[in-house]
Each structure stands twice: as C-alpha cells, then as structure tokens.
Amino acid sequence: MIGKEIISEKYTTIAHATEIMDERADFDELSYEHGCSLDYLRKFSTISKEDADAMFEQLTNLGLTEKMAVKIIDLLPETEEDLKIVFYRVDVPENKDEILEVVSKFK
C-alpha cells in the first residue's frame, strides 16, 4: 500500500461486496488473496444485494446509522439478545422490535 491514499470510506454489506468481487472476477483473474476473499464472501452472503439494499433503506429510515444498518444486514439478528450483541457498547434503540421486524421480512 506504499504510495496509496484513502480517498473515501463507505460501509458496505457482504452482499454488495460479493457482487463487486464477482464483477471483478468476470473482468480479470483474481489474485490468491482476492480469490480467498471472494470464497469467504460467497460462504457468508445470506441475502441478495437487492434485499440488502431494501433492508438498508428501511433500517436507516428507522434512524440507524449506516454502520449499524450494515452490521444488522450482515448478521441478521433474530432475537433481542442477538441485537444487543450488534449494539455492544452502544445503547440499543427503543425501536428494537421494529428493527427485528424489518430483519424478519428479509430472512
């Protein structure tokens, strides 16, 4: 990474990262590290990019930050206890039932 600088950062879901890596794999041969990353992403991607985008929209409309919405989409918590783990060191929002309802729509 010598000579490289970070221009911007953006949180992204596993589903979106999988799509990006698949497009790169179609365009050019992936390095060993990129291939391992793509294998990992494929194993742990549980929903489609379209569903992830729709869920992201709904979660951010509930007042969640981009970072928290992405974590919820990637982990798909099923219970209030699971949700508390996602919000470790951060107060769990009052609308936790609404958050779990959104997640259950896309499971």
UniProtKB/TrEMBL annotation:
UniProt keyword Plastid present = no
Q: What is this protein called?
A: DNA-directed RNA polymerase subunit Rpo4
UniProt entry tagged with the keyword Ribosomal protein: no
Q: Name one GO cellular component term.
A: cytoplasm
GO terms (molecular function) for this protein are: DNA-directed RNA polymerase activity; nucleotide binding
Q: Which SUPFAM superfamilies match?
A: HRDC-like
One GO biological process this protein is involved in is: DNA-templated transcription initiation
EC number of the protein: 2.7.7.6
Function recorded in the entry: DNA-dependent RNA polymerase (RNAP) catalyzes the transcription of DNA into RNA using the four ribonucleoside triphosphates as substrates. This subunit is less well bound than the others.
Q: What is its main location?
A: cytoplasm
